Amino acid sequence: MTIILAIETSTELASVSLSSGERIISRDLTGVQTHSHGLLPALQTLLLEAELQLGQVNAIAFGCGPGAFTGTRTACGVVQGLAFGLDVPVISVVSLANMAEAANTNSGWEDMLCLLDARMDEVYWAHYRGQKGQWLEVLAPSLSTLDVALAYAHANSLPLVLGNGLDVPTTDANFMITNAMPHASFAIPIAMHAFERGLLLNAADAQPLYLRNKIAQTTAERQLQRGV
Fold first, then answer.
1. How high is the pLDDT of residue 31?
2. In which band, very low, low, confident or very high, does the pLDDT at 215 lie, cut at 50, 70 and 90?
3. Domains identified in the chain, total number
């Protein structure tokens, strides 16, 4: 039995999950400020519920982003510490692929555009297609305005998977839309496929996926972007 721990903290909804036989058990943490303090206690609770020891874990999966800078750094730090201590590999799961897994589970979609709010009037987005139980990255994660992402979706007749805080203008109401957020429970099946294929990383290689060099804009930059 392969046992995988998963940590997802790339958005305001932090979560941890554990594969235990045919079950996936999870805990949610709310509030970004709780991410760093709540992860380890939540993982301990999962292990107790599954009647497992930390040393039985075969790999640790983590949400590498794109997403919140603090959250992704927190996940990397926790995962590196655990993986070094346990001498187990890590598995990187892109938050947008996580959303594709959620949409497939909840709606049966196999070809979709996943979008997350990136703040600063931009979105993170990627095109995923299901292929033999895995997610093919048709278009790699990108950072742009919402209009650019919607134009791509329209040109390719894709339904949209939207994270919290994203709304499609009424002029684009013809899109099929579902809502999903990255969650550790949806990282588990992705990580299982990666584990079976040997797509594993060393602890030191647990790094965030950054699409933006700057994480904030000056007032002048925001005004220029809005045409003020």
1. 59
2. very low
3. 2
**Cα–Cα distance for residue pair 226/16, rounded to 1 Å:** 38
Rg of the Cα atoms in the chain: 18
* Amino acid at position 72, single letter: T
In a domain, 77, yes or no: yes
Look at residue 132 and tell me if it is in a domain: yes
Q: How far apart are CA 121 and CA 143, in angstroms?
A: 10
Name the token pair of 11: 């958005």
Write down the pTM of the prediction: 0.90
Find the distance separating the first CA and the last CA of the chain, reported in whole Å.
Answer: 59
